[in-house]
UniProtKB/TrEMBL annotation, chain A:
The lineage of its organism: Eukaryota, Metazoa, Chordata, Cephalochordata, Leptocardii. The gene is LOC109467973. This is Exosome complex component RRP45. Gene3D superfamilies: GHMP Kinase, N-terminal domain (3.30.230.70). Residues 32-163, 189-255 form the Exoribonuclease phosphorolytic domain. SUPFAM superfamilies: Ribonuclease PH domain 2-like (SSF55666), Ribosomal protein S5 domain 2-like (SSF54211). It comes from Branchiostoma belcheri. Keywords: Cytoplasm, Exosome, Nucleus, RNA-binding, rRNA processing. Belongs to the RNase PH family.
TrEMBL record, chain B:
It comes from Branchiostoma belcheri. Belongs to the RNase PH family. This is Exosome complex component RRP41. Residues 21-152, 155-219 form the Exoribonuclease phosphorolytic domain. One of its GO terms (cellular component) is nucleolus. The gene is LOC109473784. Gene3D superfamilies: GHMP Kinase, N-terminal domain (3.30.230.70).
UniProtKB/TrEMBL annotation, chain C:
CDD domains: RNase_PH_RRP46. Residues 7-126, 129-188 form the Exoribonuclease phosphorolytic domain. Homodimer. Component of the RNA exosome core complex (Exo-9), composed of EXOSC1, EXOSC2, EXOSC3, EXOSC4, EXOSC5, EXOSC6, EXOSC7, EXOSC8 and EXOSC9; within the complex interacts with EXOSC3, EXOSC8, and EXOSC9. The catalytically inactive RNA exosome core complex (Exo-9) associates with the catalytic subunit EXOSC10/RRP6. Exo-9 may associate with DIS3 to form the nucleolar exosome complex, or DIS3L to form the cytoplasmic exosome complex. Keywords: Cytoplasm, DNA-binding, Exosome, Nucleus, Phosphoprotein, rRNA processing. Gene3D superfamilies: GHMP Kinase, N-terminal domain (3.30.230.70). One of its GO terms (molecular function) is DNA binding. GO terms for biological process: nuclear mRNA surveillance; poly(A)-dependent snoRNA 3'-end processing; rRNA catabolic process; rRNA processing; U4 snRNA 3'-end processing. This is Exosome complex component RRP46. Belongs to the RNase PH family. It is found in: Cytoplasm; Nucleus, Nucleolus. One of its GO terms (cellular component) is cytoplasmic exosome (RNase complex).
Amino acid sequence: MKEVPMSTCEREFILSAIRDRKRIDGRQTYDYRRLKVAFGMERGCCIVELGDTKVLAQVSGKIEQPKKNRPTEGSIIINLELSPMASPAFEPGRPTESGIEMNRILERNIRDSRAVDTESLCIVAGEKVWCIRADIHVLNDEGNIMDAASIAAITALSHFRRPDVSVMGEEVTVHSPEDRDPVPLSVHHMPVCVTFAFFDQGEFLLVDPTRSEERVMNGRMVVGMNMHREICTLMMSGGMLLVKEQVLRCSQIATVKVAEIIELIQKALDKDAQARQAGEKCGFAESVPSNKITTNKKEPTSVDTTAAAQHASQVIQEAGPVDKPVSNMLVQAPGTVQIGEGLVNTWQVDDEDMESEEDSTKKTATNGREAVAVSKPTERKRPVKTVSHAEDSGSEEEEKVVLYQGDVEMKSTEEPDATTLKQPTSSNSDKPAKKKGKKKKAAQK
Amino acid sequence: MAGLEIISDQGYRIDGRRSSELRKVCARMGVFTQADGSAYIEQGNTKALATVYGPHEMRKGRGKIQHDRAVVNCQFSMATFSTGERKSRPKGDRRSQEMSMHLRQTFEAVIVTELFPRSQIDIYVQILQADGGNYCACVNAATLAVIDAGIPMKDYVCACTAGFIQDSPLLDISYVEESAGAPFLTVAMMPKSEQIVLLEMNSRLHADNMEKVLDLATQGCKDVFAVLDRHVRDHVSESHALMTAS
Amino acid sequence: MATEQTLRSFGCEQNLLSRPDGSANFTQGDTTVLAAVYGPGEVKMSEEIIDKATLRVIFKPKVGLPGCAEKFQERVLRNTCESVVLATLHPRSAINIILQIIQDSGSLLSCCVNAACVALMDAAVPMKCLVSAVTCALTEEGQIVLDPDSKQEKESSAVLTFAFDSRENNVITCSTKGCYTPEQYQESLSACREASKNISSFFRQAVEKRMSKELKVKT
């Protein structure tokens, strides 16, 4: 779906407000919106809300082979997904340019600045290392996805616990969470991005732009910083022209903002750690507020299922006995078998014997459909096969189908037999589910 | 790489330069006759080739036509033989797409696009040999190519990298210094007005050192501008001499 | 066969996202699914249907890129929603339903269907009836466990999910994994049907609560 274009009135209004040093939502120029961090039940899962912008991050770990040129280091993959949920303009599938840019900034912020120690992710040098993957999904886009995503990424990485691994000589054992407590990742520092929006060719700047401010801005600058005042990443682009003094001023503002944000993240992490230690139930299900009008909660309820069992047996009785599959086969010649009546033999079979090695496979092909649906006939068929072709022991697995002229008609006349078998096996009305049911039966055979 | 000093005790770097010296820049304009503009630049061992086509009618993507200005389309690719190990994906991977986008944003800011409504300008840049400062070589080559094509720009765009290793800022980082993990800043700017068009930084750099590095990068861009400008003037006077002679 | 089965606690929150036309967060025990609906809106020319709205379901797993299993889930959900949404009221338009798994602790498919239904309600998309879905698992001994969590699902021999309509309690969708006898199937069906009435009444309560300030609800 296309994004609704912004009207000129709205654009002019926002710009004139900014020139007056006012913002549409009443904030000051360097104020952030309300920041909320919530953790999920799983380790490494968190939702960050920056105003109305919502971002979900999940960290997971897998053991893989390391890269050839870095045999003692694990790897960190950061994947930012602009979910179609966040905005009608985002399409699933290939990421857009802005998506790629944000992804690259996040990667540089966390990976290239060595926020997480990759050497500690090594299990067996050259063979097994941990590959940590952070998936960040944008749930709602109300401006400044970059900051929310970076906060979510680093918070989730700090929250994550990987399974403990012990190496004894050649053996590597991965302990489950019940055996040994999972181990946290070694996070050296927490880099957080701060986005600045520039207006009027760099004359006015705002921190944490909302969506409408983002649509009106000339260009943006992203500064990634950590608590120690180290700049981890800096990106200025968007076709705007800046002077050196503005860049330095931004980095100073960023210092202050980053300190506030990291303090908040630390508080949230500590609170969650305490709650987990106290044994309280954590997770998103718990954190749904119950006093809002838009939320509704219900305690575990019990369902009376006595009637269900009776009802079920009633239905089965009413359905009547299942038609036993027609299983008397008439062997006309080696390689052709007839089930049912009224078929015109189009296999051009004479009474004389046809000596061919593929005959047994033809049998499996023609009777394949029936065999798939119900398991009984195949068992009965086997003795028949062994009588005629004892040497073809491997023929059951072969999928060779030799088609003759009358083959198509032969297959179509088998349909009525197949449908009568279908009824008792499933009562779905859905076609895809029906086929799935049949395939499942075949798989279990 | 233990024991390999980026700066020796006498203050010389691995390739014998001092900390604020640029690598040797060689440039040639008008390399291809078919393209509207083309240029080839060598910065030390980094070699980049740029071609410009346009302004011409928008062929693909008629939906993107802008009624009041030209659309700039950039494509960045690295030749498979440009790096030490063969590069399996010359374009289409995230890094190349990001570079293409940055180039496009850089040139959209600098080219006077209002003069060519409803048309398209294509800039194709190819790295033939990568030895650090890939983006800078691309931008410099593309600037020359755009000048060669005769497309009006607000000013030259010159780009340069500056890094910070062992407490001293270094200018024009080569590949060896890049892979040592030191922070480096890439700056693309318009030299006369000292306006920064693009700023990109990798790895960790303390905020206090930021100003020094930025100043050094600015100086580097101005030096690059001096070289490019002289080259352009030489090229133009040569062509002028050829034309008036015949 | 146990006569008293317990459904885990469920909760739902509506209208929590500002961009989508309708959104809902549905939790069943610890399983949480966030659903968002955009529409009816603009449709791509290639997907346009001249007399109906085009329904599109996008199912996003939490980790990794979507693959075949996700496409299958999308298909099941799409068929379910197409049976209840009055698509003929909005020809040549698209209704997009996006589901994001926030936490998967068992009965994922039924949680998704329920979340999608609440989100469609929140977006005011016209529907014939509400859809309530329940999952049940069959243990090795043949016992039915309603609304299983992930541990129970792993140990079961079959997992069946049924979606019912709220007016006549007919089956809209049935999706099963594993093998079971016809008798077990019928039993699970009846058991889930009973349970779905709870979920339908829960939907009702949620909407009544939401509208309580605006309308006087007749008891």
